[in-house]
Design brief:
This protein has 6 helices and 5 strands, in the order ααββαβααββα. It is mainly α. β4 (about 105-110) and β5 (about 110-115) form a beta hairpin.
Length: about 150
């Protein structure tokens, strides 16, 4: 992960945990049609647009689970090593995927760069294919009596 990406990481502090968890519970139980506002200690209020509110809810939920959070735009350029790290594959394997045309890339000088959005679309499709394959394996195993659904 690049230094820039690491600098954007926000980790929940131990002393904030209970407040973050309470905020997460309140946001999760909120009315989707309700309007939400930020206010400061002087009483100034600003309405939170729905798209920003969805990002806030997701970030607070992850923080409440003890996860670090970063917001990275889809146009963020990744090196092949950064992309490989995100997919949890080796860099040579990622290069193979790129050269097979499975992940779009562009050149910056002599270096390949991958947009975060393209990488996340590939990851989502790969994960979906894996889930489908596992479900099919389970279905076949059950039909052959090789899988007991009770664990």
């Amino acid at each position: 992960m690049s230094t820039e990406m690491l600098e954007q990481l926000v980790a929940p502090q131990p002393e904030e945990r209970s407040r973050i968890q309470e905020l997460s519970r309140r946001l999760a139980g909120g009315n989707q049609q309700a309007r939400y506002f930020l206010s400061d200690s002087d009483g100034n209020r600003l309405e939170i647009p729905p798209s920003a509110f969805r990002v806030l809810v997701r970030a607070v939920r992850d923080l409440s689970l003890g996860r670090s959070v970063a917001i990275i735009h889809y146009e963020h350029e990744l090196t092949t090593q950064q992309a490989a790290d995100i997919l949890n594959v080796s860099r040579p394997h990622l290069i193979k995927l790129v050269e097979e045309g499975k992940i779009p890339y562009h050149m910056v000088g002599t270096h390949r760069r991958i947009y975060m959005g393209d990488l996340l679309r590939f990851k989502q499709a790969r994960d979906h294919e894996r889930r489908d394959a596992l479900q099919e394996m389970r279905r076949v195993s059950e039909s052959l009596g090789l899988y007991d659904g009770e664990q």
